[in-house]
Amino acid sequence: MVFRDEINAAPEALAGSAGEDSGSVPFSVFISRNSHGAHVLLLGELDMASAPLFQEKLSDLIAEDPGDVVLDLVSLEFVDSSGLAVILALHKALEPSNRP
Length: 100
Description:
CATH class: Alpha Beta
CATH architecture: 2-Layer Sandwich
Number of helices: 3
CATH superfamily: STAS domain
Strand order of the largest sheet: 1-2-3-4
Largest sheet: 4 strands, mixed
Strand content: 25-35%
Distance between the termini: 31 Å
Radius of gyration: 14 Å
Shape: globular
Oligomer: single chain
Number of domains: 1
Helix content: 25-40%
CATH topology: Transcription Regulator spoIIAA
Structural class: alpha/beta
């Protein structure tokens, strides 16, 4: 799993550098910040193996009070129920009534 603070390449370029024989892209999260909030790009498969680490990274982001958060799922190849649970928890945490 890869976590980076900035998007350094287009998703197509990142997907091509996976280096796995199975053809799947390892799960990666790229977070970029600007004056309006954060852009979170997900690559690969968000499943029960990667969801806990993704949750941890999102918890760190939420603690920083990022403003608006755009969750970009265009390069996500697969998501299971544990991944959806993390996404729904993010949505709930960022609702105006749940913000400090």
